[in-house]
Amino acid sequence: MQVFVGLGSNLGDSEQVLRQACFEMMQWSSVRNLQVSNWYRSRPQGPQDQPDYVNGACCFETHLAPEALLSALQALELDLGKVKRRHWGERLVDLDIICYGQLSMKTADLTLPHPMAAKRDFVLVPLLDLAPDLVLPGYGTIEACLAKLPDTFLYASDTSDSKVMA
């Protein structure tokens, strides 16, 4: 199944932490053909008394079930040093499943596609790098979602290209 994961960080060397997260995922036997978007800087969506974020996305193929993937990503966040201090607050690393194929589901622990993905340019623009024709189930194309946004959080992209990591 093709999966898209949103990446974010606003503490420490954010780009390095996100690169490390991608590298670690690439080592998993359950991950194939990992690709990474450009990195983007964004202002915080939550409390404004925190540093700006670095955001991106990755996509890969996996045989893991959605809940197993969520557990693996949460374990990776902890391994990388994530400590959640407050809702929508600063964090060293945040890894969110944005979509899992075209699956729509809602459990106590996981909603797919991610319920806020279609409302956040810092999620949508990195997805556009990876899959311009991607359709978020229930929301439409990435371009259509971007056209509906009333606000932007992004500043600018770096100039590096997306790349296949594994």
TrEMBL record:
<protein>
    <recommendedName>
        <fullName>2-amino-4-hydroxy-6-hydroxymethyldihydropteridine pyrophosphokinase</fullName>
        <ecNumber>2.7.6.3</ecNumber>
    </recommendedName>
</protein>
<comment type="similarity">
    <text>Belongs to the HPPK family.</text>
</comment>
<feature type="domain" description="7,8-dihydro-6-hydroxymethylpterin-pyrophosphokinase">
    <location>
        <begin position="87"/>
        <end position="98"/>
    </location>
</feature>
<dbReference type="InterPro" id="IPR000550">
    <property type="entry name" value="Hppk"/>
</dbReference>
<dbReference type="GO" id="GO:0016301">
    <property type="term" value="F:kinase activity"/>
</dbReference>
<keyword id="KW-0289">Folate biosynthesis</keyword>
<keyword id="KW-0418">Kinase</keyword>
<keyword id="KW-0067">ATP-binding</keyword>
<comment type="function">
    <text>Catalyzes the transfer of pyrophosphate from adenosine triphosphate (ATP) to 6-hydroxymethyl-7,8-dihydropterin, an enzymatic step in folate biosynthesis pathway.</text>
</comment>
<dbReference type="GO" id="GO:0003848">
    <property type="term" value="F:2-amino-4-hydroxy-6-hydroxymethyldihydropteridine diphosphokinase activity"/>
</dbReference>
<keyword id="KW-0808">Transferase</keyword>
<comment type="pathway">
    <text>Cofactor biosynthesis; tetrahydrofolate biosynthesis; 2-amino-4-hydroxy-6-hydroxymethyl-7,8-dihydropteridine diphosphate from 7,8-dihydroneopterin triphosphate: step 4/4.</text>
</comment>
<dbReference type="InterPro" id="IPR035907">
    <property type="entry name" value="Hppk_sf"/>
</dbReference>
<keyword id="KW-0547">Nucleotide-binding</keyword>
<dbReference type="GO" id="GO:0005524">
    <property type="term" value="F:ATP binding"/>
</dbReference>
<dbReference type="Pfam" id="PF01288">
    <property type="entry name" value="HPPK"/>
</dbReference>
<dbReference type="GO" id="GO:0046656">
    <property type="term" value="P:folic acid biosynthetic process"/>
</dbReference>
<dbReference type="GO" id="GO:0046654">
    <property type="term" value="P:tetrahydrofolate biosynthetic process"/>
</dbReference>
